[in-house]
Tetraacyldisaccharide 4'-kinase (Chlorobium phaeobacteroides), 355 residues
Amino acid sequence: MSFDLPDIILRPASLLYKNIIRIRNRLYDQQIFHTWHSPLPIVSIGNISAGGTGKTPLVDWIVKYYLSLGCKPAIVSRGYGRNTKGVQLVSDGKTVLMKSNACGDETAMLAWNNRDAIVIVAEKRKDAVTFIIRRFAEAMPDVIILDDAFQHRQIARNLDIVVINEKEPYFRADMIPKGRLREPLINLARADLLVLSKITGGSTTAAISMDLEQTGKPVIKAGIAAGNLVCLSGMFNTAKESPVHAGIKALAFAGIGSPQSFIDTLEGQGIQIVSHRFFRDHESYTAKKIAALRLEADEKKLTLVTTEKDYFRMLGQPELQEILHTLSCCYLKIRPEFTEGEKLLKTMLNAVINR
């Protein structure tokens, strides 16, 4: 008799993890574990699966929306992949104070793209919020945005948004570590709003939408819209930003949660992917890896194209500074494009600050 050893190991581990999460949530539901209420309004954007849902572009969109209203938002993130500990001030709303190696690639990207927003990283979101209250006592932010905090129940929130990737068949997925689910799907009942991301508009969109509507929660639909292609001849040189020109032959590389979505977006813009290299989400690059990418691109006469998140990750790695001075590379800017429910989302975001 033969056994699938990985399945034998992973399935019980997933069951154990599921039970731990169930007990933890029950303790919060019964108020045995206490939830702290911030004096500042809180918006949480999270997911129920591990990475690749399109959460970060939505966080960026929400920050920009609040800024467009004349509000002062603060972003609180764990800062995945950083080499620091504790509460760290990434941006005071005027100056970005950290590189990505100290605050995480996604956090650095959010800080640089939203210079007027306060940005904090901390393992414990409550510590970050209390730091904001003390540090900015004379000029409090109008709203705090918790990045990736659906499972972080220590803080109460005024609006709880969960992002779900249409391309991932999560209704048939297993719990971590066998699968990618962070907690059972029944816990979507805690959310106030569901965002179905990376939609294609086909039968898959319709099927998942029907499943989500069974939760009784409002569902917003959003695809990924490609912005400009930002190209640098030498990663520290002035960037040249321009619309994507179809026909570019590329070597695409990325270390993100859902790399195939990146490839699909590039191909949707008419970029021809001749070769690609995928790395783990938040994986640090090495000079050897970058040199290999450049060599292959040069030999095949291809353009190196990556994600904006990977671009910021590379810029924050001290050991890459020498090779980046001469590396020609492009990154694609993206944003969510709402096909249904944008007005509802804005109404709910407005309600948070007008309470």
User: Anything to note?
Assistant: The chain is about 35% helix and 25% strand. The first helix runs from residue 5 to 29.
